[in-house]
């Protein structure tokens, strides 16, 4: 009865039997698996091959910097699903989500010139270090899912990932953690334990890369610049985590973090990652958009309907609290009196939510929406006598 009421079971996807001759596992429990068992499926081997194919490290450093922490993460994830419902709600779903997100991230990182805004010579020198930052940040972001589990071993002891790898049969249930700062703090403890020491010593040679990684791991993911953007985009479209109540950034976030992020935004080259700067504060901006007399601008209405649709969607999303400013991993940030929209993620979200509304306009590319939004924004700003310029 206890198993049925409190502990997670999935009759539709029972765990696969292990290949050795270990003692039978009690009903409702999972047996700890080795890393060879956990990574031995064809699909997971395919994800690992992608990681190697996109790596710029020699084999020995690839093993030390990537595979070793990856295997430790997989051992912590065992047969856990990501959530009770969704794409990865089956035994082993967390490992599949982990490897798929990681494969997506390394592919995406190759479309960026890293670090943003640096000279080509510096990018050539630092490229491997920034790629490692992307890999590590992605790895440890998926560890967020462990914070939503209550795990009990066969001997009755409660297990925590901080204590190390499971070595006894275990069962678990979902206890969603609704405070993002606690989730990120939990992942940070694991990350700083699993990060390869030699890799960190190597990364010290490039302070900006080290700073971006440390900010991401400390929970200031929106302020980690291109690192946070790639990790977020890599995980988009997958049901990775239980719902988390929207929350502002931790109060302890230093003012310098916002300055650092603003500096990054000014340096990041399009189209890889840049942010639209909307002058004035967010409420004023939205009031101006809502109150603008578009009847005097027939060309605007006729030629840029997707831009209008985006503005209406953004205003409603903010009014209905679906979009929260300065939220961890959010899309809207208020910094020093200016409002920034993170692109392309804000437009990806718009496209996903407004697909049917966009169908009559024959628009299926977020870049088209962005261009129309920029034209609308510039026209309205000119009508009000103000100036609004995208920040490259």
TrEMBL record:
Residues 29-236 form the Uncharacterised domain. SUPFAM superfamilies: Winged helix' DNA-binding domain. InterPro entries: ICE_relaxase_PFGI-1, TraI_2_C, Unchr_helicase_relaxase_TraI, WH_DNA-bd_sf. Residues 306-383 form the Putative conjugal transfer nickase/helicase TraI C-terminal domain. This is TraI domain-containing protein.
């Amino acid at each position: 009865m206890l198993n049925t009421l409190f502990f997670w079971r999935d009759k539709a996807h029972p765990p696969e039997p292990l290949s050795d001759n270990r003692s039978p596992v009690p009903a409702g429990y999972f047996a700890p698996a080795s890393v060879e068992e956990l990574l031995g499926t064809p699909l997971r081997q395919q994800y690992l091959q992608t990681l190697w194919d996109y790596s710029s490290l020699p084999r020995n450093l690839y093993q030390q910097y990537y595979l070793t922490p990856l295997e430790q993460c997989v051992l912590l994830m065992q047969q856990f699903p990501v959530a009770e419902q969704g794409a990865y709600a089956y035994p082993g779903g967390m490992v599949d989500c982990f490897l798929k997100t990681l494969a997506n991230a390394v592919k995406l990182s190759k479309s960026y010139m890293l670090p943003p805004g640096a000279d080509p010579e510096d990018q050539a020198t630092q490229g491997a270090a920034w790629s490692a930052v992307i890999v590590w940040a992605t790895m440890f972001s998926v560890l967020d899912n462990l914070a939503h589990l209550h795990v009990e071993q066969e001997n009755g002891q409660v297990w925590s990932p901080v204590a190390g790898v499971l070595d006894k049969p275990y069962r678990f249930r979902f206890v969603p953690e609704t405070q993002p700062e606690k989730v990120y703090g939990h992942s940070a403890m694991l990350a700083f334990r699993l990060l390869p020491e030699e890799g960190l010593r190597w990364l010290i040679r490039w302070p900006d890369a080290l700073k971006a990684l440390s900010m991401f791991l400390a929970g200031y993911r929106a302020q980690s610049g291109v690192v946070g953007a790639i990790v977020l985009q890599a995980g988009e479209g997958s049901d990775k985590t239980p719902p988390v109540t929207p929350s502002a950034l931790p109060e302890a976030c230093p003012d310098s973090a916002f300055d650092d992020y603003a500096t990054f935004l000014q340096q990041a080259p399009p189209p890889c990652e840049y942010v639209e700067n909307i002058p004035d504060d967010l409420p004023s901006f939205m009031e101006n958009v809502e109150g603008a007399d578009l009847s005097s601008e027939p060309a605007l209405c006729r030629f840029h309907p997707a831009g209008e649709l985006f503005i209406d969607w953004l205003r409603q999303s903010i009014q209905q609290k679906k979009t929260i400013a300065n939220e961890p991993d959010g899309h809207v940030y208020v910094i020093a009196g200016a409002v920034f929209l993170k692109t392309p993620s804000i437009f990806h979200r718009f496209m996903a939510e407004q697909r049917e509304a966009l169908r009559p306009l024959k628009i299926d590319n977020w870049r088209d929406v962005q261009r129309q939004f920029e034209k609308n924004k510039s026209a309205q700003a000119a009508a009000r006598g103000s100036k609004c310029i995208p920040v490259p």
